[in-house]
Write a structure and sequence with these properties.
It contains four helices and ten strands; from the N terminus they run E-E-E-H-H-E-E-E-H-E-E-E-H-E. The protein is α/β, with parallel strands linked by helices.
């Protein structure tokens, strides 16, 4: 058996009673008969992360801390309370690059990101004076986690290399770790599903 990891979805089109999917920057074409395509649409992946996804999640966290130390960031803090209202939520990592227009980003790492995680972080940010934006990074993320209404909390999932924003909108330090340190070529932006909860 040969396994091919799909790194990009380039085109999806109807083809001879089925669906043709072009992936990996045009290097791979998959043709699914209509019945197989419909069966795939009814599948749901388990939310349990596998060991490789958990290792990659840990590598993102470690890579961010190492990148910040190597590049003289103004602030590198760990286990920081979120907000000023006594919220139990905490940032695993808070980074502020040096420079006059630098934004302070908070990072929270979870094996499985849920909509409830996003809601709790959004709530605690109302009292937050230091952190200007948050990335909730998971080994996996449930579909509803990407349905945020606000811009303050971004969700990034190792599984599917998907994010609630494009790679051009990611914090520079995060994209450098993902692309240079981990070899990611892109992130798949996930369109918000609206305000359904």
């Amino acid at each position: 058996m040969r396994e091919v990891r799909v790194q990009s979805l380039d085109k999806l089109e109807m083809a001879d009673g089925g669906v043709r999917l072009v992936a990996n920057f045009g290097e791979l074409a998959l043709v699914f008969p209509q019945g197989v395509w419909e069966a795939l649409g009814r599948l749901s992946l388990p939310l349990d992360p596998n060991p490789e996804e958990l290792r990659e999640l840990a590598a993102v966290r470690q890579g961010l801390a190492e990148h910040a130390r190597a590049n003289g960031f103004a602030s590198i803090l760990e286990d920081v309370p979120c907000g000023n209202d006594g919220s139990p939520e905490r940032f695993d990592l808070v980074l502020r690059p040096s420079g006059p227009f630098a934004l302070t980003m908070g990072y929270v790492f979870e094996p499985v990101v849920t909509r409830e995680h996003v809601d709790r972080l959004e709530a605690c940010l109302f009292g937050e004076a230091y952190v200007e934006g948050v990335y909730l990074v998971g080994a996996v993320a449930e579909e509803g986690a990407f349905a945020g209404e606000g811009e303050a909390v971004k969700v990034l999932s190792v599984r599917g290399r998907s994010c609630s924003s494009s790679r051009f909108e990611l914090a520079p330090e995060l994209w450098r770790v993902l692309s240079e340190g981990m070899g990611w070529k892109n992130v798949e932006p996930v369109a918000p599903l609206g305000s359904e909860r």
